[in-house]
Automatic annotation (TrEMBL):
Matches recorded under InterPro entries: AAA+_ATPase, G_ENGA, GTP-bd, GTPase_Der, KH_dom-like, KH_dom-like_a/b, P-loop_NTPase, Small_GTP-bd
Binding sites annotated in the UniProt record for GTP 1: 10-17, 57-61, 120-123
Keywords, in A-Z order: GTP-binding, Nucleotide-binding, Repeat, Ribosome biogenesis
Name the UniProt record assigns to this protein: GTPase Der
GO biological process per UniProt: ribosome biogenesis
Top-level taxonomic group: Bacteria
Similarity annotation: Belongs to the TRAFAC class TrmE-Era-EngA-EngB-Septin-like GTPase superfamily. EngA (Der) GTPase family.
Reported function: GTPase that plays an essential role in the late steps of ribosome biogenesis.
GO function term, MF aspect, one: GTP binding
Keyword match Nucleotide-binding: yes
Keyword Repeat in record: yes
Residue ranges constituting the EngA-type G domain according to the UniProt record: 4-168, 182-362
Record note on quaternary structure: Associates with the 50S ribosomal subunit.
Amino acid sequence: MPLPTVAIIGRPNVGKSTLFNRLVGKKLALVDDQPGVTRDRREGDASLIGLDFRVIDTAGYEDLDAATLPGRMRQQTEAAVAMADVALFLFDSRAGIVPLDEEIARWLRGSATPVILIANKAEGKAGEAGILDSLSLGFGDPVQISAEHGEGMGDLFEALLPHIPEPVEEFEADDDSPDAPLKLAIVGRPNAGKSTLINRMLGEDRLITGPEAGITRDSIAVDWVWNDPKSGPRDVRLIDTAGMRKRAKVQDKLEKLSVADALRAVDFAEVVVLLLDATLGLEAQDLRIADRVLEEGRALIIALNKWDVAENASSLFNGVKKALEDGLSQVKGVTVITVSAATGKGVDQLIGAAFETREAWSRRVGTGELNRWFERAIEANPPPAPGGKRVKMRYVTQVKTRPPSFVIFGTRVDQLPASYERYLVNSMRRDLGFGAVPVRLTFRAPKNPFDRDKK
């Protein structure tokens, strides 16, 4: 049984994201004094004194034309309220009731969703006049809270209780299980089409899109079920991220926060899709993003978007493949897939490749298979002898998965050149089925008790 849903709504800068972060127990949503920080609706699992529910943080409601960015933000807020079991209507008790609050109240009175009026920033006496004024909105006495300081959460619990059914225990797949939802992050430069691609997958305008670069600020996670043509429905958690520009060009405080949020999303993901604009080709910033993904040990797929309008497609594809081979020295053969977020072409191929890549990223090699590979690799290319002293490699063991990590034990293995380490890693990828996922390989040599130079 899915969790009940609670939507937080209100005009810009009344503390919606602060309350969202308070309820989910961590700073998932960006918060700043500047109004209009939140643009897409953001969801998270919340718990309030044992009451569990799904909470949605929405953009500030503004009464502007639907063709404008604020207008498209308003449409996302309206969609969130329509799907919610209850809406928390937040107003700033210190600022009092303003005309936009009254406009939101009129809209909510026509909605079928139950509404709880919330007076935020109600600590002290500064908000008393605003609380009295709020009675005119027609939702009764407001629940008085301070989202920033955590005051009034008990009263909020009591107000939510009639709208939240008793929890039903469910079996949840283990994160390491192949049946667990695939955590798939979409990253790239601004305006590459990340939100458009996710909307195409979902079959709805879930995320705000438009010609303006940098619309997405928060990293937005959305649950989706992909109908695998081979095996049927499979769960996916899609993570849309803010566009990442070259660091020197990122001056705005909010953009810096957004980029940091996108990097945290990479840490959370299992597979990361780097989305490129095929009309622009591969740029140095794309390689920097790819390198960061691999450094974090995440599986990487390259998707060339806008393929339906790309010119000289064959030479472009080969050029991107060659640039990746040259620019990503630590991984060879990264999967490159052509897609069109506008038409949906290539989406099934992309998601199928993501599941296959996660399987390789999660692969554990049996001891017998691993050591047979080890013997063949050493026999085919024996280790060098630095300084004329023989390197003796005794055995290898896999210490973890996700990403697959191995340790080789032996004498003087710490003196092996980097080229031999690359040989072993590439051989491991080729022979053991890891493909282009990151593989971690470390060497351990026993300490020599007779070596007086080491203390």
